[in-house]
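new request in #modeling-help
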Amino acid sequence: MAQATVARPVALGGEMPLWDRIKVPVFYALLIAWTLIAVLPYWLTVVYSFMPKTEIFAPPRLWPSPFTLENYRVVLTAFDEFPRWLLNSTLFAISATALRVFFAAMAGYAFARMRFPGRNLLFNLVLGSMMLPGMAMLVPQYWMAVKWFKFVDTIYGLTIVWVSSSFAFGVFMMTQFFKQVPRDLEEAAFIDGAGWFTTFFRVILPLARPALLALGILSFQGSWNEFMLSLILLQTPENFTLPLGLAMFRFQYYAIYSNVLAGSLFNSLPIMIIFFVFQRYFVEGITYTGLKGGA
Amino acid sequence: MTRVSKQTLQEWFAAYTFLFPVLLGWGIFVFLAMVMSFYFSFTTFNLLKPPQWLGIDNYIRVIRHPDFLRYAVPNTLKYVAVVVPIQTVLSLIFAFALDQKLRARDFFRTAFYLPSVTSSVVIGIIFVWLFAPQGVINQLLGLDINWLNNTKTSLPTIMVVNIWSTTGTLMLIFLAGLQDIPSELYEAAAIDGATRIQMFRYVTVPLLRPVIFFVVTLGIIGTFQVFDQIYIMTKGGPLKSTMTWVYLIYFWGWQEVRPDMGRASAAAFLLAVTIFVVTMIQRRFLEGSEA
Amino acid sequence: MMRRKAVLTTLVLVLLAVVLGACAQQQPQTQVVEKVVTQVVEKPVEVTKVVEKEVPVEVTKVVEVPAERIEVRLSGWTASPEEENLLRSLLYECSVQRPDILVKYEPIPSDYWAKIKTMIGSGTEPDFYYMDIFQFPFFAEEGVLQPLDEYMAEAGVSRDEFLDTLINAFTWNGKTYGIPKDFNTLALFYNKDLFDQAGLEYPTNDWTWEDLKAAAQTIKEKTGVAGFSVPADPGRFPIFVFQNGGKIMTDDFSDTLLDSPEVIEAAEFYTGARAEGWAIIPQDVGVGWQGEAFGKGDVAMVLEGGWMVPYLSAQFPDRNYGAVHPPAGPKGEGNLVFTVAYSISVNSKNPQAAFDAIACITSEENQLKVLESGFALPSRKALQDADYLKENEVARTIFTGAEFATPFMWGLQGEAVNNAMAQALERVYLEGMSVEGSFKQAAEEVRAALQE
């Protein structure tokens, strides 16, 4: 097992024995080193979120002592609207992710594979729109949302505005991924008489699963953590999302760090779970080994 | 003749049907918003009262403002030049590594992704603490540097934080891209006697080009627009050493008692054009003629 | 205890929902009787020692709810969960006192000014909202606030009822544009243990710069801990200017005085404190805010406001401290006042209802609750004799500090002035630039900003 770790399931012919002998340890050493760098700050957050707020300035330690659930109790009970925030965030993140991934995949496919007048212009405009900082578009977006669509203070309004303003990223990403997919399978489908729609839903979407999954994870994370648009569009505490509600724990002059840490961990938990569950589907070779069997 | 044109028409129709939802949403909330913002950049606009036409002056005022050319632009360019290559290479290597059959692969992937999940406020708090004069970093390195309150080290420190926190996201994208490379190609390369490094160089990288272009573009956009970490950790200081383009836009457009959204919008469009030019140059290199 | 509170709060919400539901149903003009339970107010703050007092007073009040209630929207930033709940309890109280008015509270948890300004630009701002003195001149000059004098006269609310510094601060061209809500000033917080260790008498309200310096030097010698803190903070440094007879801006805010001799002398003293080794900046001890350095015991004295009290009791409950007025300079006393008012939007459709709501929230009875909560100091003169102030040294110090205080406000380019001041100090601290050169440069930066 250990020897096969680095290699793809292929026998490597004629390589250097020295590299062969040290590659596994070197490889794992590097992985573990970056794991430490990546995990340590997060782990410290976990540790300190379980310690009394008076201990926040205690020297670094790897295990919470003294241990307390107080910070979580404060975060979960300080505001009566907490369950609403959780519900709002869930509704928002799930609907925003679904809408964005699906529509961005459709548009990305059109840009990657179809020829139509205005393609390059539109694609460059979409790409170019990512280059203007979101901060500069906030005022017009608010004006339109409020005056034309009465989207103010609703989760569905927030969903529509967020999905719309984050399309560019999704479309760009899907376009690039579809470009990478070999054309053979689609051509086979066309020869069988399938149209664009059938081909897209039956052949392309299953093929693009890793990319859809990646965009899905990023979209969930992006919408779950969304702040600026929610801040400007939502008004009453009952309609807040979790990040907005948790922002109430940052005070005007100072922050009680323990509460901020507990709140942010609570906020990041769903994303972590979703990532852990879905990353298993990134299994190398899945698309082509599967398809080869069928072809 | 008719057959071809019917097919072409069908393709056009299909394309615009596929694009419709995106064009509708993006068209209103991004494209129109951009047009309005472009209009703002030619006006005097303090948020409270409707914009008043001014002309090209805002662009001149941006360029002539001492903070812009002396601090915001050089700091931002340095930032892009350092962060983009490092985070791209690191995340590509990580993705390649975590695409292999490894023990505890799920664990490693999640661990590598963790920084992307951590909220930027917490990242700010933690790194301020790690980089404090008596903090962990100084203790480990045996140094006595006030990382965030020193004009020479503040920007590099933010760069490190940025690389740390975005590598996970980019790794995820590369990981998805690696799935699409047929294993037959690696098998063929192996039969030809290629080493793993050669395979990475001659099989993985070329096939991954569109995704690499995507990641690099994303990196360029993200670093040119760096704001969150600076807002949380240094507020542009000390002494403007971490003053960046978007931080200046934020200051002019949102933070001043009497906001100057006209000038902020002008600075935003100058930034967009700069990013666009850099992206196009980069596209030449990465996508070649195929773009 | 907490569970009880949660249950109670839920009950309140349910009952409130009943009330709201009732009015939504367009009841006939007959008397409708509903129960309203006022929310529990937590009182977690006592000075110097923490007594987590929770006083669950369940008050059931029978209220006539008119068939139609006028709805007015209120926005404010969120200062802390405790203050949030305090405000909500005041709003409940006022819904009992004025059942004909329904205040819809819309807190803005971040970037308050950006959002309020954007809302005003599209005419969607709330009927009344928090107005900070730092931002006030812009709103007044743009004419987006409602003058309140007529409403005040009609309701019998006099300007004299409020502390002069505060009500005058919210006056523009002779008209009142805000009813002060609360305020803060700076006080010299001192660590009693460090003073005991150094064998020094505690500071008094009569201290001068020389006393400050002498005590700080002794503490540094005897305990090794820095005596004082001189952050590059535009919300702290200016009081030394005032104490030196200087000003930051001219009276009409058209020019800056940052390069005047008074300012430069004050800055020499301020930055000299660090150069001479008896003061630090917070970054020297690895923190961003001197309040944290004080809490950790890394500095013996800091100039901070009333927010230190809840902060220290939450984060550093063992810190044994007191507070006196900032030491006087060569030209006497000087202080900064940070104050917030309720202002009514000029676009409000129900300015009368909004004013009535403000009058209720800022009534003497309700202001006393604000005072007793320990989070902020009330704006009413009548409360200077309140028992709470007599018993609480820190609160009294900060309350009476208003007498010598100048509002924290530098005109329409206030943030540019703040930045220029902070950077002038940073140049001295980090780059060893001369005070005079650095402040001249700051003055030039401010003038450039003013000319645009």
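bot summary: The beta strands of chain B are 43-44, 52-53.
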